[in-house]
Amino acid sequence: MLPPAGVIAFFLLLLAIQTGAVQELDQRAVIAASGLRTLALTAFMKTVTFFGTKYFLFPATAIVTVILFWLKSRYRLVFPLAMLVAWFVMDGLKLLIARPRPDFCPLILETGYSFPSGHAFMGTLFFGFLAGLLIDRLPSRPGGRPAGKRVIFVFACLFVALLGFTRIYLGVHYPTDILAGYAGGLFFLGLLGIGKDAKRK
Fold first, then answer.
1. What does pTM read for this prediction?
2. Helix or strand or coil: residue 140?
3. N or C: where does the chain have the smaller number of CB atoms within 10 Å of the terminal CB?
């Protein structure tokens, strides 16, 4: 997604959540997701959602940054900077918009506001960057066909989608919060330009 598209998508969602129809759909989605709850599935969702927390993302970003310096990657400075700026932008948007979180039987305690989802925002940026970096560095098969690149892309998309769904399942975000988080994360990915090398090969 090009950076302008991410901004447009975000503001369209911001406008959408002001309407009663979208608010009702959001509420119904959270209630519907709660109907899927089982002990085993809740344990799984809590495990997956950990990968969108600061307790994972902060040390993981530091580790990736060290690896980028070791590889002498051109992203070694801009990636940690993008993660830092994105975090402050995401937090600032939450405070500015000040949308309350769902109050229908949340399974975990969360503080702060709801829109956009930080898990979706930062998870899209972090895991999208990792996927793009791997895709850039993987060699292509003779004839130009990708060797495992589609698998990495699909896996990254599915994992980020699952990460977002955990927040709805756990009752701490609405679907529109998740979509807005994806738009924000894709905006910063677009600024980084990750994955462009793969497209040129």
1. 0.89
2. strand
3. C
